[in-house]
Design goal:
Helices cover 20% and strands 31% of the residues. It has 294 residues and is an alpha+beta fold. It folds into three domains: 39 residues; 75 residues, Alpha-Beta Complex (Type Iii Antifreeze Protein Isoform Hplc 12), CATH 3.90.1210.10; 117 residues, no CATH class. It is rod-shaped.
């Protein structure tokens, strides 16, 4: 092989290797650029403070922050105006991205009702009317837990009633008021919406139609079930101590004086005189008598 041919051959191989190296370098740099773009932060809207469920979000509860592009949650808001005055249907903790799934749909959109997002899957929301006493004097709030006690006449004995805890540790979804008619006048009646499974919902609806309901507020950490047998007036009064009968003071003995009847003395027995005969003797002008015993 002559020298010029060797130079040409070497140049060709060098060019091929240069092209391969350039292609490999280009691929590497392209991947690096893509990875840089993937981790390049983008601006999204996050919660500046904890936002409880049911809260109407205002601008002070939001802030703009940078978030890695490849890990941005789907549906994240990128403008504060698109989130303000929307209602949170799920709790949003501080620093979490505000997404459409956590917000109530806009008015007119399908499923824009609020309560439908609060009811857990497989449960039912049941609203019952209560008074100030049955509703624990208005101290009930959403997320509290209550027991439900029903007072109704005993089956087969309408004259006696029984009170029994029928549902325990039931979450409250909402509280509110409805307008009802009483004596021809509108009155405001407090209501409580409870989170129940279908079987318990049937029990509650039937009990409310047959008797009166009372809600018992539980400690939020008290989840223990309590078995009770119900209470009747007879059971309640059976535990009372009987009052001792008042001591009766015997009256002072009355001294009775019996009137003694006068006892007549028996008549003295007198022996009858002996029976006799009288003989009269006449002698001339003389007259005499003699007695002879019988």
């Amino acid at each position: 092989m002559t020298r010029p041919n060797a130079v040409i051959l070497a140049s060709v191989f060098a060019l091929i290797f240069a092209v391969i190296a350039a292609w490999l370098a280009y691929g590497y740099l392209q991947r690096e650029m893509n990875s840089v773009k993937a981790v390049q932060p983008q601006k999204i809207i996050v919660a500046a403070a904890d936002i409880p469920i049911g809260t109407t979000i205002n601008e002070s509860q939001l802030k703009v922050t940078s978030w890695p592009k490849d890990s941005i949650p789907q549906g994240s808001a990128q403008q504060v105006e698109s989130v303000t005055n929307r209602v949170a249907i799920r709790p949003i903790t501080k620093g979490d991205a505000v997404t459409e799934m956590k917000l109530k749909p806009r008015s007119g959109a399908a499923g824009s009702g609020f309560m439908t997002y609060v009811v857990p899957q497989g449960h039912r929301a049941v609203t019952v009317a209560v008074n100030e006493v049955a509703g624990v004097a208005g101290f009930l709030t959403p997320s509290d837990r209550v027991d439900v006690i029903v007072t109704t006449p005993l089956p087969g004995n309408e004259k006696e009633s029984v009170s029994k805890i029928m549902l325990e540790n039931i979450p409250i979804l909402a509280t509110g008021q409805v307008t009802d008619q009483k004596e021809g006048k509108p009155v405001v009646v407090p209501t409580v919406t409870l989170d129940l499974v279908p079987v318990d919902a049937e029990k509650l609806v039937l009990s409310s139609s047959k008797g009166s309901l009372q809600l018992l507020l539980r400690n939020i950490s008290d989840t223990e079930r309590v078995e009770t047998k119900g209470a009747t007036i007879a059971k309640v009064l059976s535990g009372m101590e009987r009052m001792p009968a008042p001591a009766v003071t015997a009256p002072a003995p009355v001294r009775q004086i019996k009137k003694l009847s006068k006892v007549s003395k028996p008549p003295l027995l007198v022996n009858p005189p002996p029976r006799s005969y009288t003989l009269e003797i006449v002698r001339g002008t003389d007259k005499s008598t003699r007695q002879y015993a019988e």
